[in-house]
């Protein structure tokens, strides 16, 4: 892997994600419409706590431990959740009225990308959940790249985007095994591995990623890590309120998260206990590491400042009053570009 001159990154504010899946569908419609890609969701939004997609991916291994490759396995299509076929013809055109109901045709599924959506954890009245959007992390130290014997995975010198060269790929799937985030898919028709490309054709034209641009909640910030005028550097390095997911995997991901704040718990008497957050600190630490508690304290401190009438640059960034400020210069209107058809 050659030296990367600059690194593109993304920050997602989990306090603003409503789980609408607009990002998921914008990616699906743009990039995963070919044969063999039906079950692929390069962008996914899962309910946390939850098993996600592929099922229980956090326990599958991969990445690095003490600088050495960590044991792992290849997730199955069933664990990802296959693309199901439904009896649409029978329900909508079969003339059976209320006798026919929408259901999966053939073998009944056991898991899917959002199988446990909105279930979360905890017991009434202290139940909780939040949404976690995920894409390929375009890691600084990508395990997938090191695992490929064909050198079919490349990290672009100009922006650090990690891509699979499908002409070189021979379908060994060592990349799927090595990736600890399990965001690489196997195209069982074309016999190649495929994954998020960080919308590089859009990036090259100055247009933000589809998932970021289409997000109605203004959850996603895009830009270069070293752009001190952009949102990424300010959130990750200046104010340090955005953290990587499972940094212990050792791949140095370039997707970061502003962790979710939560209302306090109710005690046994039904009174609000301000000292006990609804989302357990231990769970957030398991996702984002021990620094997550500092981040939550920083966010609460900034909120206290604004309530007292003071200004907060970090909250102004996160609120995203102007959408163009979110994309580090990648704010060109895609409708103004004459895209080449392939």
Ends apart, CA distance between termini: 29 Å
The CATH topology is: Alpha-Beta Plaits
Q: Spans with pLDDT under 50 lasting ≥5 residues?
A: none
Q: How does the overall form come out from the CA principal axes?
A: globular
Describe this structure in words.
With 342 residues, the chain is α+β, with helices and mostly antiparallel strands. It has a single domain (8-83, 111-336), classed as 2-Layer Sandwich (Alpha-Beta Plaits), CATH 3.30.70. Helix content is 23%, strand content 16%. It has eleven helices and 14 strands. It has helices spanning 22-31, 77-80, 88-93, 143-147, 174-178, 200-203, 210-213, 231-238, 281-288, 292-307, 313-319, and strands at residues 8-13, 44-48, 64-65, 68-69, 130-134, 153-155, 162-164, 184-187, 192-195, 220-224, 243-244, 255-258, 264-266, 272-277. The strands form six sheets. Strands 10-1-12-11 form a four-stranded mixed beta sheet. The longest helix has 16 residues, at 292-307. It is globular and about 60 Å long. The two termini are 29 Å apart. 38% of the residues are buried. The model has no long low-confidence stretch (mean pLDDT 96).
């Amino acid at each position: 892997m050659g030296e990367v001159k600059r690194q593109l990154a993304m920050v997602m504010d989990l306090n603003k994600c409503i789980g609408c899946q607009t990002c998921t569908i914008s990616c699906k419609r743009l990039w995963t419409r070919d044969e063999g890609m039906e079950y692929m969701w390069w962008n996914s939004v899962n309910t946390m706590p939850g098993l996600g997609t592929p099922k229980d991916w956090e326990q599958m291994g991969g990445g690095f431990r003490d600088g050495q490759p960590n044991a792992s396995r290849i997730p199955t299509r069933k664990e990802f959740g296959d693309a199901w076929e439904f009896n649409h013809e029978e329900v909508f055109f079969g003339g059976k009225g209320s006798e026919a109901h929408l259901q999966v045709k053939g073998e009944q599924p056991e898991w899917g990308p959002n199988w446990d959506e909105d279930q979360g954890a905890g017991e009434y009245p202290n139940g909780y959940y939040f949404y976690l959007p995920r894409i390929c992390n375009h890691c600084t130290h990508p395990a997938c790249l090191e695992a490929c014997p064909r050198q079919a995975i490349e990290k672009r010198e100009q922006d650090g985007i990690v891509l699979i060269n499908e002409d070189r790929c021979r379908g060994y799937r060592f990349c799927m095994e090595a990736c600890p985030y399990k965001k690489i898919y196997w195209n069982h028709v074309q016999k190649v591995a495929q994954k998020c490309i960080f919308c590089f054709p859009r990036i090259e034209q100055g247009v933000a990623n589809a998932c970021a641009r289409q997000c109605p909640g203004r959850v996603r910030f895009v830009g270069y890590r070293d752009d001190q005028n952009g949102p990424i550097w300010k959130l990750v390095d200046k104010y340090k309120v955005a953290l990587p997911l499972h940094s212990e995997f050792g791949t140095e991901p370039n997707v970061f998260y502003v962790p979710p704040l939560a209302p306090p718990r109710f005690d046994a008497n039904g009174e609000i206990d301000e000292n006990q957050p609804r989302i357990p600190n231990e769970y957030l630490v398991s996702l984002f590491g021990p620094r997550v508690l500092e981040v939550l304290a920083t966010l609460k401190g900034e909120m206290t400042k604004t309530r007292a009438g003071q200004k907060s640059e970090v909250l102004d960034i996160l609120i995203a009053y102007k959408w163009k400020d979110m994309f580090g210069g990648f704010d060109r209107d895609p409708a103004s570009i004459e895209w080449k058809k392939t």
